[in-house]
Inverse folding.
């Protein structure tokens, strides 16, 4: 929360560049500027699975985790500047900065382990709560504004930007629903750690933190329908590096606090629609909806054991989807 308010202070400070009486000269010819602040509901799903070895075999899917129906309270802010004609662009340009923080209030996570290919011979499954954790989303972009003369009030802004997304996920209050020590012993040997017995899992408090970061290309389409209503539709295509760290607190054969790490690359698509209703010269009410779909290529899962050894497996894929609906206000300086 402290970082959120610091960000707002920075945005307000940045807009003071418009006050010519304070500055001896203008760094930019600022045509317009403002800040959006809102809050609302967000729902996320994230899943990943790994193979038994680095070649994607023994078995093809050894372990699979699925976080479902994550209910998130989110606050967000967007600062924007419209800069006057720059020499090399010969047109106005838009600068955007976005930040959002989410608090996970509810959700479920399933952890399944298999002994053979094709998700067969499931030897362990637990169903757990995922009702704590955080999400963070940061993004910045810039691009030239093209007014479309065919339709009055319509413009398009191609954007180039960079984004960072984080999900700090949990696994608590678990219940073991499938436990088959025979499958575990038959396929992996008597030295393998056996599954927990059916029933409640005491002291479960595991964590998984995922990071998605990289450049993106996109566009804003703005339509000023009338003096009161403005609609913005945007799309972004992201190229990301993916990195995750986990602490499986009940696995005595794993190292702590970092039990394993995952690395790969991926892509993401973000769709956004925002409506503004003008209340007066400076203030507008806003309603904002966003849909996100992200996926990765295969990568590496690196497990750190308590005895100091390291095991490598193939990270088959990671999938993340999200939608959110927020409301708030926009203030134009």
């Amino acid at each position: 929360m402290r970082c959120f308010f610091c960000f707002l202070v920075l945005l307000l400070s940045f807009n003071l560049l418009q006050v010519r009486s304070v500055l001896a000269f203008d760094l930019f010819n600022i045509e317009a500027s403002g800040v959006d602040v809102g809050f609302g509901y967000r729902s996320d799903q994230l899943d990943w699975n790994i193979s038994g070895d680095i070649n994607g075999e023994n078995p093809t899917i050894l372990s699979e985790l699925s976080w479902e129906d994550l209910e998130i309270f989110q606050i967000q802010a967007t600062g924007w500047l419209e800069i006057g004609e720059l020499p090399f662009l010969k047109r106005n340009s838009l600068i955007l900065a976005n930040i959002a923080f989410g608090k996970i209030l509810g959700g479920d996570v399933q952890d399944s382990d298999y002994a053979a290919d094709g998700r067969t011979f499931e030897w362990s499954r637990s169903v757990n709560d995922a009702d704590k954790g955080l999400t963070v989303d940061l993004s910045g972009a810039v691009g030239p504004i093209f007014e479309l003369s065919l339709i009055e009030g319509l413009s398009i802004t191609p954007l180039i930007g960079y984004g960072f997304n984080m999900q700090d996920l949990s696994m608590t209050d678990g219940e073991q629903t499938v436990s088959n020590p025979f499958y575990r012993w038959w396929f992996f040997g008597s030295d393998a750690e056996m599954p927990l017995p059916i029933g409640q899992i005491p002291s479960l408090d595991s964590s998984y933190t995922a990071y998605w970061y990289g450049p993106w290309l996109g566009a804003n389409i703005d339509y000023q329908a009338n003096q009161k209503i403005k609609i913005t539709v945007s799309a972004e295509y992201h190229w990301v590096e993916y990195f995750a760290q986990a602490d499986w607190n009940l696995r005595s054969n794993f190292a702590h606090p970092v039990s394993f790490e995952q690395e790969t690359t991926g892509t993401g698509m973000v769709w956004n629609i925002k409506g503004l209703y003008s209340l007066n010269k400076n203030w507008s009410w806003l309603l904002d909806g966003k849909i996100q779909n992200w996926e990765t290529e295969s990568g590496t899962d690196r497990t750190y054991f308590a005895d100091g050894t390291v095991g490598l497996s193939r990270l088959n894929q990671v999938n993340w989807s999200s939608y959110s609906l927020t409301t708030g206000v926009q203030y134009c300086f």
Observations:
- The two ends are 24 Å apart (CA to CA).
- The chain has one domain: 2-21+30-332.
